[in-house]
Amino acid sequence: MSCVELKPDIIFIDLHTPKMNGIKALEEIRKASPETIVLMLGSDATINTVKEALSKGASGFIVKPLRPASILDKLNSCWQAKNNHV
Question: Can you give the residue range of the structural domain that contains 69?
Answer without folding.
Answer: 3-84
